[in-house]
Structure formats: C-alpha cells, structure tokens
Design goal:
This protein has about 150 residues and is mainly alpha-helical. The protein is built from seven helices and no strands. It has a single domain, classed as AhpD-like. Helix 3 runs parallel beside helix 6, helix 3 crosses helix 7 and helix 6 crosses helix 7. It is globular and about 45 Å long. The two termini are about 20 Å apart. One of its GO terms (molecular function) is peroxiredoxin activity. This is Alkyl hydroperoxide reductase AhpD.
Length: about 150
C-alpha cells in the first residue's frame, strides 16, 4: 500500500510541521521525564491510534534508548503486569485518557494519580508529549505513511 502523500512530499508542502509539532513536546531541562518513558507514552498512543508508522519508529527508538523488547511486547497489557513501575503506570493511564478523550471522560482518579506522580508542571509537560504524538499519529494515519519493515531474518 502506497502512502496517499509521502512523508517527504508532506514536509515539502508544509515544512513548518517539522518544527512546530516537535516543539509542542520539547521538554525544559528541569522536567525529569526520561527518554524511555517518553517512548513508552508515544508507543502506547500510537498503538491506540493504530499508527503502524509511529509504532515502528518509537519501538526502534525505545530499544536504542535501552528499553527491553520484552517490555515493549507487553505494553498493551501494562495494567496487568508487574514490570511497569508507578511512574510508567501513571503516565500510560494519562496517555490513554488524553488519547481516548473523545470516547470516555478523563476521570479524577487518573488525573489525581498522574498529578501525584508528576506534579503540576510535570503533568502539563507529559501532556505535551501526548499532544505531540497524537498530532503525528493523525498525520501518519491520515496520509497512509508506511514504516520500512524487513521481513527477513
């Protein structure tokens, strides 16, 4: 399946996407959200949005930043497994709530847990990461971007 518009063509037509969308998720130095957590958040949102292009990208980046493949394999089941810590759980719950906001409300429980773990500034900054990836997912899915996947061993 070919993309409706290729990533290269899209960025030729609208180069500001390459600066404006990433700027949403850029974190100040005083916010301690690790690269590994950012990748888990981006990967989970991409899974929920059925964005194979971003799933591939953020899985690759997560592994490059030291995340274990075994953990990436079970990310959709994060609620049921002990391998996810409290910070990851709060971030993933918040990610799912913001990503799925059109289908169900963001509960006080999810908000309060994320606030407890990240504080106000950290929660706002975490939200910017979710906003950024949801923007990219909609672009990639809408234009039919395809990841490069090697099927040979």
């Amino acid at each position: 399946m070919n993309p409706r518009i290729s990533p290269i063509k899209l960025f030729e037509l609208c180069p500001r996407l390459l600066t404006h969308i990433p700027a949403i998720g850029e974190l100040p130095k005083d916010v301690a959200i690790s690269a590994r957590l950012r990748h888990l958040v981006k990967l989970r949102a991409s899974q929920l949005n059925h964005c194979g292009y971003c799933q591939k990208m953020h899985s690759d980046e997560a592994r490059s930043d030291g995340e274990l493949q075994a953990k990436l394999d079970v990310l959709p089941a994060w609620r049921e497994l002990d391998c996810f810590n409290n910070e990851e759980r709060a971030a993933l719950a918040w990610t799912e709530a913001l990503t799925l906001v059109s289908t169900k409300p963001v509960t006080d429980e999810i908000f309060n847990e994320a606030l407890l773990v990240f504080g106000e500034k950290g929660l706002v900054e975490l939200s910017t990461i979710v906003l950024e990836i949801n923007n990219w997912n909609r672009i990639a899915v809408g234009f039919g971007f395809q990841p490069e996947i090697t099927l040979e061993r």
